[in-house]
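Ticket #4471: structure export looks truncated?
Reporter: QA, pipeline team
Priority: medium

Steps to reproduce: submit the single chain below to the structure queue and open the exported record.
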Amino acid sequence: MTTTSPTASGPLAKLAIRSAAWSERWFPNTLVFALLTVAAVAVAALGIGAPPATVALVFGDGFWDLIPFTMQMAMVAIGGYVVATARPVGRLITRFARLPRTPRGAVAFVAAVSLLTGLLNWGFSLIFSALLVRRLADRDTLRMDYRAASAAAYLGLGGSWALGLSSSAAQLQANPASIPKSLLPITGVIPFRETIFTWQSMLLAGVIVAVCVIVAFFSAPPAELARTAADLGVAPDQPIDDSAPRTRPGEWLEYSPLLTLVVVALTGGWAVQQFADQDPIVAISGLNTYNLLFLTLGLLLHWRPRHFLAAVTQAVPAIGGVLIQFPFYAGIAAIMTKAVNHDGHSLSTYLASAFTSISSPELFPLLIGGYSIILGFLIPSGGGKWIIEAPYVMQSATDMGVNLGWTVQTYNAAEALPNLINPFWMLPLLGVLSLKARDIVGYTFLYLLILLTVVLTLLTLLAPTLPFHPPTHR
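Actual output as written to the record:
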């Protein structure tokens, strides 16, 4: 596969390609970063005087604290993948692919679709947008740059997802059952109404979408300079052949929609009661509700249990990192909050004091945003990293009187940006597109540079518009 640099062969594009090549060569698997963080936090806890036996004990006891949340986030990814690969959605993608009239328009269209679907579900956005790029690439007369369009397809995960319904940090804070016991007294429960549904958060999301679509349009090469999928050696998309005959009587129910309709009816009846009995925003804030509705929609769209199960099986490889790394993040959070020295202070206490001492209410969003961006490159997990950061970040926010809901959104908006150059979450998208990270990172790096200024500026300017409320355990 050819992996030449973007058409605009200026210093920025060359730097992006070299950066991607360097990270592919030298950066280990993200599990290694999780293990390094375990070691670093353990050493730091010992450094403040926590007994070794205590450090080991709280790590082991806290290792499984995130099991419910781990399963919930895995189901977010599976549900999104299942819905995106259903046949009715495939027909919708085909219709979408007929809309753009120019190569640059096609790239901008992919960016808009990726960013808007990212607000609904990051797993759905990733696969839906990748499949849209494949359909657009099949249009021989369009001559769309495949690399630029593929980078645009990743913007949902690199720009908007953490401000939407599948935000790991916002979902965790809205669900008291998912919050580790050591974290609950510090953060309290924060419903969606105080995070993703504030007008400040929606304004920030809207600006991110608009900026990215504009950048996508103007950074995409015109038709005469574009490198198409064929130029890159990517084979045309092939439809899945599922016409194998049924040979056993037991297979009848696998191909029948009967059981699908029963489950859909049950879920529909349950959902009606849930939304009738409580505030709709509170209802959709529940990860279990969100996941059940998405999985049921996937089952309905696939119609037959056999097709649904095949889609789930295809989705599972994309969640391996979540399943194995989240327990280590839980252990890290336990060390930071529970391993105390002879003065009764934990590592989290010291970090909160440090943030409070070097910051102010006005500069706090800028400091936390910048810090989260740096740490996000090492720990590419919105929910797992929030478990690590939340104890001292939220304590520091409380000490300075900064709105806790906006602190969560500050983390969310900043945390998504490192995804643009970190290959961890690119893997499902790249698998669908038959590309490597270095093929698209020259473009995603450009988005990162522009969004850094836009996001950090808005986070700082909007923070004073929200009042402070102490943590509540409602």
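Status: closed, not a bug. The export was complete when the record was re-opened. Leaving a note from the reviewer for reference: Confidence is low (pLDDT under 50) at residues 1-10.
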